Each structure stands twice: as structure tokens, then as C-alpha cells.
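[retry 2/3] Peptide deformylase: previous attempt timed out, resubmitting with same input.
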Amino acid sequence: MTVRPLRLIGDPVLRMPCNPVTTFDAPLEALVTDLLDTVRLPGRAGLAANQIGVALAAFSYDVDDRFGYVLNPRLVETDGEYDGDEACLSVPGVHARRLRAAYAHVEGVDLDGRPVSIEGTGELARCLQHETDHLRGELYIDALTGERRRDAMRMLRRARV
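[retry 2/3] Peptide deformylase: success.
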């Protein structure tokens, strides 16, 4: 089991769009294994490759008894609204209510380049959206506005003291 250290807010790799996976080889398999091992720790729901310092379009998830990974994920459909608390491993000590779609559908490929499709509601939908945002170089706090943003920024300042 290899649990990789997390990159935290301020690390440039979190702000760069990730490159698509084009080479399906042993190093990619090792990356996926590390993503899966790292997300399995208690209290974790999803993990994008750039959160462990690799700028490739890949993420793992462990939500509501659903566990897996997606390479080259694309958010292909969302529906409804789901407002709830959100946090991020790369922004420790901060949480905020964030409006997301209540349903999300992601398509991508597996280690063999075969198509995969994951869809979910509630927290799984939130995770799928959150991780695909990471792969575009976005953090969940970027979309916060008003009092929600002010509260999150206060938490972030306190967490960094």
C-alpha cells in the first residue's frame, strides 16, 4: 500500500489543467494504485492525480460503497441542485456550503483504455464534479461567492496561521 503525500493550496500543480492520459503502461498502473490506496484512508471521498503532484487526468473515488478510478474523465451530464457542505484534502481546515448538481455522470476510460461510465446522486455526484474540477486546475472554493466565500477565506487564514 502506497499512500502519497497531498499537495496543498498554493502548490502550482493544483492550478494547472491536467494532461490527458495517452500512455497506458506500468507507471500509469502504479499511479492508479497510489490514487486508490490514498483515497481509501478514512474521511476521504475523492482524489485527483494533481493532488498528489501528477498532472494527468485521473481521479479515484470512495463514496457510498462505490470505489474506483477514472482516466480522462469528462463530466457529460448533470441535473438538479444539491446544496451541502464541501471540503477538500488540498484545502485543509476549510469547509463551505457549495451548490452542486444533484446528479452527475462521468465518462472516461480504465487502465486498458476501455470506456467506463460512473453516475451518481448526492455525495457521489458532488465528488465526481469536485474531482473533474481539480483536473481543470480549479478548487471548490473558487466558485464560492458572498458570505460563503468570506467564511471560507476566514477559515483558510486561520488554518494557515
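[retry 2/3] Peptide deformylase: The two ends are 33 Å apart (CA to CA).
[retry 2/3] clearing retry counter.
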